[in-house]
């Protein structure tokens, strides 16, 4: 199913998201379908994901993490493997309690800009696609590796090997000229104040 769903070779993108990111690998993040601007992922249920044991319901952090990862991959499908994607803003609306079952997230790029992309993501139980449990909207900063150095000043990329622009190696020379210390000092006063005698003259002695 995955192979027939690819409009271009995204196998390396998918492999990186599934295997090279420890968190994604830990939760079982699996790409079901991927094409440019769209991905569908599935995460198997684990009891450790429960945030409210009384219902029970999935922890909201799991839902938001899946929304973030799926949205980032949706943007990345429109970029080369070496390009950089980073999340700068995300909003999540929790519509229903997260089910104690496998969940599916579908992400679609709704705006593709030169530096910023916007993605909408919906999450639902794998067996109930018509009942969304969370809806997310995320903004991603994008940077192509072919961008000129002047545009590589952004920070915050969580990707190893990020370039932040050429740093100038030229440093202002340290001045070796020192202000001469004045050897002229104020002359010390040699005037001494005479001591007063403590003796008392007694008449007749």
Task: Show the helix and strand layout.
Layout: H1 2-5, H2 11-20, H3 22-27, E1 30-35, E2 38-43, E3 50-52, E4 57-58, H4 60-76, E5 84-94, E6 103-112, E7 116-125, E8 132-143
Antiparallel strand pairs: 1-2, 2-6, 3-4, 5-8, 6-7, 7-8
Describe this structure in words.
The structure is a single chain. The protein is globular. The chain is built from 4 helices and 8 strands. It has helices at 2-5, 11-20, 22-27, 60-76, and strands at residues 30-35, 38-43, 50-52, 57-58, 84-94, 103-112, 116-125, 132-143. A hairpin with a 3-residue loop joins strand 6 (103-112) and strand 7. A 6-stranded antiparallel sheet has the order 1-2-6-7-8-5. It has a two-stranded antiparallel sheet with strand order 3-4. Mean pLDDT is 78; it is low at 1-6, 150-173 and 195-205.
> Radius of gyration from the CA trace?
35 Å
Average of pLDDT: 78
- Which spans of ≥5 residues are poorly predicted at pLDDT below 50? 1-6, 150-173, 195-205
Largest sheet: 6 strands, antiparallel
What is the number of helices?
4
SSE ordering? HHHEEEEHEEEE
- DSSP strand content: 25-35%
Provide the helix percentage: 10-25%
Could you tell me how far the N terminus lies from the C terminus, measured between alpha carbons in angstroms?
132 Å
Bulk shape = globular
**How many strand segments?**
8
Biggest sheet: strands side by side, in what order? Answer: 1-2-6-7-8-5
Tell me the structural class.
alpha+beta
